[in-house]
Design a protein that fits this description.
It contains two helices and five strands; from the N terminus they run αββββαβ. It is of the alpha+beta class and 109 residues long. It has one domain: 3-Layer(aba) Sandwich (hypothetical protein tt1805), CATH 3.40.1530.20. A five-stranded mixed sheet has the order 1-5-2-3-4. The chain starts with 5 loop residues before the first helix and ends in a 14-residue tail after the last strand.
């Protein structure tokens, strides 16, 4: 199965969120072809979650899992640690008081 280049996926994701009126920011730009992506959801109350894509080894299905959650500074520290291991990592920040990130929507796996 062919994969969509990361840069294209990020562009489509940002457009989809912006169409819903959800604020987004590219905090760190990674490799446009094959970089991994972390999505930070800040709920504007001092809390946040960081999501990373995971692959089910049995089925090959891709899902988004919570990497870190809690106060925003702790989540930021976790993201910085991941970024220190992988400089090609994309970090997308989503700001939404209602907690919308749309990662569970069709086409965003």
């Amino acid at each position: 199965m062919s994969r969509l280049a990361t840069g294209l996926w990020v562009s489509a994701y940002l457009a989809r969120l912006q169409a819903e009126g959800i604020s987004t920011y590219v905090v760190a730009k990674g490799d446009a072809t094959a970089g991994a992506v972390l999505v930070k959801l800040a709920t504007l109350d001092g809390q946040a979650k960081a999501f990373q894509r995971s692959v089910d080894l049995m089925t090959g299905a891709r899902t988004w899992m919570v990497l870190s959650e809690g106060d925003e500074s702790s989540v930021d520290e976790s993201i910085a640690k991941q970024r220190s291991f992988d400089p090609d990592l994309w970090v997308i920040e989503v700001e939404d008081a209602r907690g919308r990130h749309m990662l569970d929507e069709p086409g965003l796996d």
